# Entry
Amino acid sequence: MSDYLKTTLEQEEKTLSPFATKSSQSKGRQKPIASDGLRTDFARDRDRILHSKSFRRLKHKTQVFLSPEGDHYRTRLTHTIEVSQIARTIARALKLNEDLAEAIALGHDLGHTPYGHAGERVLAEFCDFSHYKQGLRVVDFIENEGIGLNLTFEVRDGIINHTSKGSPSTLEGVVVTWADRIAYINHDIDDAVRGGVLNIKDIPAKYIKAFGDRNSKRINSMILDIITHSFGKSFVAPSDKFKEDIAGLRQFMFDHVYTRSEAKQEEQKVRDLIAFLYKYYINNLDKIPRYIIDLDSTKEQKVCDYIAMFSDRFAVNKFNELTIPSNWAKI
# Structure
């Protein structure tokens, strides 16, 4: 072990909370690797995710609004970056392991399909599919052309448990569950207002009073409440009042944006597109990359694995390639 890495690990022992996950206490990887003498295991996981193809594809995957016109709407990648920043802020303030929180945050949505939850719902009709389970498949089996990323137990645990139904085994994983919720509620309000789907005045007054009337104020108030309520404790959570109000604001978004807005009117086309691709590939397995075919899984899962990798525009291009006749010319 280099002096630099040794110093880093010693600093963690001295400065992090007794409830933090120390890098030296990691449960390790499925396949042990030699130390690089520089980074902790969690920092290495962060970098492996950051440099992966799956991470780069997030820039062309839907967050909420399908194929929005304009440069300022969130994509799955910008959402991930916002989650990462919020998670780092909370972890730093609570003296938790910032590298671990960041790695989980950067990897938490790697399993998302083209067109977000709309695509996820279609694939779930054909195989046992959810984006959080798929995220673990991505880092374990699919990324790096079938080799996987060989991440630590703690990062893998955080990825599969990042939703509200999950139960992360580390406080850093819990931080990401709240950072995810804070990020998407607030940036989806911002995008909905920008797109004319929602008027800021439509938000019930009690939530404006609780969190603030601007995106930055809402985010700051939610983060500050979690930090204040959790500092020095063995848990990470907002106060009961904020937890209730966050849940209420989230439900407001489901009722007025996520399920009923004009921005969702194209979802039937998404269903038709993804279903067509599934039916095509289930009957043409030879068109799927060899490393996916070689995975120990059902043919239905292999098709879902492949389609889930697609970006929105790649899915459209594949659909067009398979359904629209090419121009013919004889020279």
